[in-house]
Amino acid sequence: xxxxxxxxxxxxxxxxxxxxxxxxxxxxxxxxxxxxxxxxxxxxxxxxxxxxxxxxxxxxxxxxxxxxxxxxxxxxxxxxxxxxxxxxxxxxxxxxxxxxxxxxxxxxxxxxxxxxxxxxxxxxxxxxxxxxxxxxxxxxxxxxxxxxxxxxxxx
Length: 155
What we know:
Layout: E1 4-7, E2 10-13, H1 22-29, E3 48-51, E4 54-57, E5 70-72, H2 74-77, H3 84-91, H4 101-114, H5 120-127, H6 137-154
Parallel strand pairs: 1-5
Antiparallel strand pairs: 1-2, 3-4, 3-5
Helix pairs in contact: 3-6
């Protein structure tokens, strides 16, 4: 019996070497290219996805450890790209080069799932492991606050 993982709501067989990082399974096997390779050491956050709702660095997570788990990538965050974070990112002109943005958004979504109204300090703490080479940290913080407010209003 083969092992399965659920990615963005669809079951996928783990039919690769179990040591393969989830990042490469997503990008090379399934062609989900929204998740980016940054450092390969779990330090920059560009590869952040959700595993059972938790922000996880896919570049250091062996696919074999994920059997029976549910993974959400940036492609699965919102069918139409209209998640409050995605809208706030655009509204606040967060992306410059855009390379880190999927990981930033996925980490922020994990934060808002457990803390619907984070303070600026809580946002800083939660996001400190995600690196933006363009330095848009102030816009990222503002976008997270705006998305949190929209999500609270919609609740």
